[in-house]
Structure formats: structure tokens, C-alpha cells
Amino acid sequence: MDEIKSNVPKTFSDRVRAFRYLIVLTALVAVAAVGYTFLPDAEVSAQQIDTKPGAANEAPEEVATRGMINFALNMHSASEYTVYAERGIVETGSDIRGTKGSAQRSETGRKRTKDLSNTIDAMRQLPCTDLKSSSLTGKSFNSGVYCMSSAELAGEMMLDGAGDTTGVYIFRVAGTLNAKAGSSIRLENGAQSGNVFFVAEEAEIGANASFRASILTKGDTRIGTGSTVTDKVLSMGKVEMTDS
Predict the structure, then answer these.
(1) Is the pLDDT of residue 53 over 50?
(2) Is 90 helix (H, G, I), strand (E, B) or coil?
(3) What are phi and psi of 94, to 5 degrees?
């Protein structure tokens, strides 16, 4: 009898403690639910964006800004010349309308060559649209920076300004620029030849071509008989011109 009496209070006490524990647990769950309800919306949105398939692996394509382009095209002392060649200009009956020059063994000459080299390097580092084909013939381009392993023009290409006369067109050519005889660059809708640049390792402009752009090369540039280059020809090598 004594044993039964002693067990009853113990069982009742256990039940009371269990009931109190249940009340506390319920309260904690309710508080947690309220806290989750009032979480900032920005955090939820960020989680939703992160959980989209492939979102973490996608990166926006880098585009050359106007500031980057202006910095690259700052030729400093090299901008004074229409035709400049570090290793000299070889011309036969050519008409150069502007200032021509070659490297001189002086501080001024060394600075001019360094400025040109820096400009070419800066242009080659600009973010660009990769052109898979080396052929420019029959194609139309809006303003921007384009890169290709080599470039060949065997007819006409067009640059479309879309009404913007300040648009800049830069073609980064890792190898040789080869414009065949009779080839030409047509400018439409406000595109300006002074804003068109080809930077290449070497350049070969065939006879009777109309090349309405500036040409900058690390190596030699050769311009054929009867050809016209509208803007600048700047080279770290030689420039050879024949009746052009």
C-alpha cells in the first residue's frame, strides 16, 4: 500500500513537467514563425535569384566603355603625324597630305615611339566582340570593338553610324590585315573615317583600294599603287607606299 501511494505523486509530477515543456515548446515555435514572417523581402529575393539553375555560373559580357576607348586612343605625341614609321618611310610618288616622320635618335623620337607602342598595346587590351571569320567582305558593322585572328577584305565592307557621328569602330587583328586590290570601306549614317581604327601585326593594302580608316601596326605596313588611306598610318616597323 505504501508503495502505491509513493508512485502516484511521482507520476503526476512528471505529467505536470511534460505539460509545461509542451507549452514552452509551442511558444518558441510560434515566436520563430512570426520572426520568419517579418524577414526583409530583399533577402528572400536574393535567395530566389541564387536558386535559379545556372545563375551562379553566368557572368555579364564585358563591353568596352567610352572611357576605356578614349584612354586607349590617346596617342599623345604620335597623334601629331599622318604617317609615322619607327623604321622609316619608303615612298615612291606618293602624296601624303599631313605630317610624316620616323624615329629619331633623340628623347623626342623615343617618346613618340613609346607613345605609339602604348596606344597599340592599350587598344589590344580592350574588351571586344570576337569575330569567328576573318572575312570582312560584304559585312556591316555598328560602332564597337571587334577582334579577330586575321582580317581580309576582298570587296566592300560597311560601317553604320546609325545617326551617331561620334561612334568609334576598332578592329583588333592579332595577325595580318589584308585588303585586296580594289577593296573599300563604305561609311553610312554618320560614321566618320576619323573614328575608324585597325590595329594589326602587319598590314597589306592592295592597289586601288579605298581604305577609310587609320592603320596602326606593330610590324610593317605596305600600301599599293593608287590606293588611298583616309586617316593615319602609324607603324612600329616600316611604311612602304607606291603612288598612293
Answers:
(1) no
(2) strand
(3) -90, 155
Spatial distance between the Cα atoms of 204 and 186, rounded to a whole number of angstroms: 19
Which DSSP letter does residue 230 get?
A: -
Lowest average pLDDT, out of 49-53, 98-102, 118-122, 228-232, goes to 49-53
pLDDT at 107: 77
How open is the CA angle 136-139-145, to the nearest 5 degrees? 70
Cα 216 to Cα 169: distance, rounded to the nearest angstrom: 13
68 Cβ partners below 8 Å, 6+ apart? 126, 127
User: What digits encode the pLDDT tens for the residues 101-117?
Assistant: 887 667 787 888 999 99
- DSSP assignment of 124-135: HTS--EEPS-SB
Question: pTM for the complete prediction?
Answer: 0.75
List Cβ neighbours of 3 (8 Å cut-off, separation of 6 or more).
none
Q: Among residues 88, 76, 60, 151, which one has the least CA distance to residue 112? A: 76
Cell of 132: 569567328
